[in-house]
Amino acid sequence: MNRWWIYQKERFPLLAHGPLIAAFSACAVSFSSLIRHAPLPGWEMYLTAFVVCLLMFLQLRIADEFKDFEDDSRWRPYRPVPRGLVKLSELRILFIIAAAIQLGLVLWLDPRLVWVLGIAWTYLALMSVEFFCREWLKARPIVYLVSHMGIMPLVDFFGTACEWLPRAGTAPQGLGWFLAASFFNGVVIELGRKLRQPADEEEGVETYSALWGMRRGVTVWLFTLLATLACALMAARSIEFITPVAIGLGAVLLIALAAIFGYAHRGMSGKKIEAVSALWTLALYLLLGLVPIWLKH
């Protein structure tokens, strides 16, 4: 068990990811309820959304271990799989166990959720084989980024379905801006974790700071924050919560601007950009889901 504890600590730290995924999944359930003016969602909806989403992100990590095994073995032998801490065959079993738990929870809450889960699984499977065009995507980093971030709104859509499908049977109108905010926020996270100072770059590790340069990379990150904000405000408008969202995300945006200045001009570590990305994510999902539903109930 100790080696699995080490694996999660290095590759899927639950203490870091757990709260963000909890906010992510709970927001999806809450937002669906809010936009439909429905009663408070049941605990079973929140539980199913959280566990399925948590395991989905774990499956994404496992899929990456398979997809990147050759590159990791060459350039990053310190990672758990190349150094022999865990085997790919063991991760395959873990993936299947996770899928069985997801399916069991979905059947328990509402069997109709299987098709929604199936959509996310299908997209994950396509991501795992790089949509059958690995070299073409690798040569086009922006297309690669956009194609892989498509999983974010699909997982969020599943989270909303945990509320609307058992109760109403059909998706409510107005989810589009919420799902768009989820997409752009996924880009924020992805860019934020791959911006580094020159001294921190590693050979064979693809980062956006190396690809575009530090200032251009952090500028793109800023624009994705603004795109997320715009979509979040439109989503907040549909649940009559636009002012708190504007104030809350505006405050985090000021922190982000300070981080950008420190990173671009004062040698601040890219880890700070990653930390602000996590703060932004937490604020986004709290303000679009848990905070308004708590105030209204």
From TrEMBL:
InterPro entries: UbiA_prenyltransferase (IPR000537), UbiA_sf (IPR044878)
Entry's localization field: Membrane
Topological category with respect to the lipid bilayer: Multi-pass membrane protein
UniProt superkingdom: Bacteria
Pfam families: UbiA
TM region positions: 12-33, 45-63, 84-107, 113-133, 218-236, 242-264, 276-295
Keyword annotations from UniProtKB, A to Z: Cell membrane, Membrane, Transmembrane, Transmembrane helix
Protein name: UbiA family prenyltransferase
Organism (species): Luteolibacter rhizosphaerae
